[in-house]
Amino acid sequence: FSPRANTSSTDFSEGYTNYNLVSVVANCVVLGCTFLAGIAGNTWVCWIVYRKKFLRTSNNALLVNLAVSDLLKSLVDTPLLLVTVVLGYKRHNLGRALCDLQFCAYSLGNCAQLFTLVTISVERYQAIAHPFENKKRKKRVQLWVLFSWALGLIISILGFIFAKTTPAYLRCRGRAISTPIHSNDFGVFILVPVWLACLALIITYYSRIFVVVRQHTNKIFDKGTTTLPAAPGSDHQGVKSRKGQLSGALSAPAADQGLSFKGADSTAAASAQPAGESSLAPPPELAGGVCVLNPANRERAKKRLESKLAKRSGYIILTFLAFWMPLIIVTLLSEGWLGTNPLLLEVETFAITMTCVTAAINPIIYAVVNPQFQSE
């Protein structure tokens, strides 16, 4: 090496060491809180859905799949990353097996989480566009769950080709990032393209959701709705069968039909009868009311409900994007001239840590935006 190269490498190592201690403390605090909250929260979500039968829906099945991927990150990836940060600071080699396990858990958990968010976006659109295809939805959800884990596993296996260049893996093997030239091939060639592709799909389907919801916003929900009196315990089919009879009876003069009703209807009927003429039959005791919806209103009501579920899922997706955006930006910057800055390398390590925080945040979002989870 030339003297100039040695000087550059020495200055870089000194600058890197100065930033390293602060980075270790910050990473330990974030990973420690994520480890405790992630295990407790995601275990709670899985247990609640298992214990309550009414929560076993297609939409919640995707949330449980997301909770399982978060639980994997909390149980395996987060503690191994914490050990890597602490012992890597002292240049301890944790061994190839543990380092490979940490990388596999990180990539598999993140890919499964990312693909699950994409499937949630697709399913929310399908639920709004085709609100009554429940049987097809169950089959689709089962296939989406298998697809998210299978594709995540494939990407994790392919990622081992570039794993040795990631900052976390280098620290796990006790190797200091002491050269000005640093290239995160896994982030550039796998992580960023996959993340951007999934982001494009999420934006596409949520844009379509927005268009569909916007089309139904200005429509009146109760247009074409008729409220008919019905006896307690009568079914919807019975109300429909009597709809024509009642409408025909009410269209004729009340005196000819010989019917009287309580309230305003009874007053009108009494005034229409000739003086001294009594009713032919005692007034029917009809209680309650049934709202008969035509198919258009029924579909509109279902779409409005599904749009609310889409809005709740959107909070989860926005949180995921917010915590992942720093890593994507830093990964792209590290490939340019900023990659020679030791502070940027520490920021890159901390950005990796921040991606784990979603495992602890997601259960809190479920409880905040979902009334069923909130009550449980």
Explain the layout of strands and helices.
Layout: H1 3-51, H2 58-89, H3 96-129, H4 134-159, H5 167-172, H6 185-217, E1 226-228, H7 236-251, H8 254-257, H9 264-272, E2 290-292, H10 295-333, H11 342-355, H12 358-369, H13 371-375
Antiparallel strand pairs: 1-2
Helix pairs in contact: 1-2, 1-11, 1-12, 2-3, 2-4, 2-12, 3-4, 3-6, 3-10, 6-10, 10-11, 10-12
Question: Can you describe what's shown?
Answer:
This protein has 376 residues and is an all-alpha fold. The chain has a single domain, classed as Rhopdopsin 7-helix transmembrane proteins (Up-down Bundle). Helix content is 74%, strand content 2%. The protein has 13 helices and two strands; from the N terminus they run ααααααβαααβαααα. The protein has helices spanning 3-51, 58-89, 96-129, 134-159, 167-172, 185-217, 236-251, 254-257, 264-272, 295-333, 342-355, 358-369, 371-375; strands spanning 226-228, 290-292. Strands 1-2 form a two-stranded antiparallel ribbon. α1 packs antiparallel against α2, α1 runs parallel beside α11 (342-355) and α6 runs antiparallel to α10. It is elongated and about 70 Å long. The protein starts with a helix and ends with a helix. Residues 1-17, 220-279 and 284-292 have low confidence and may be disordered.
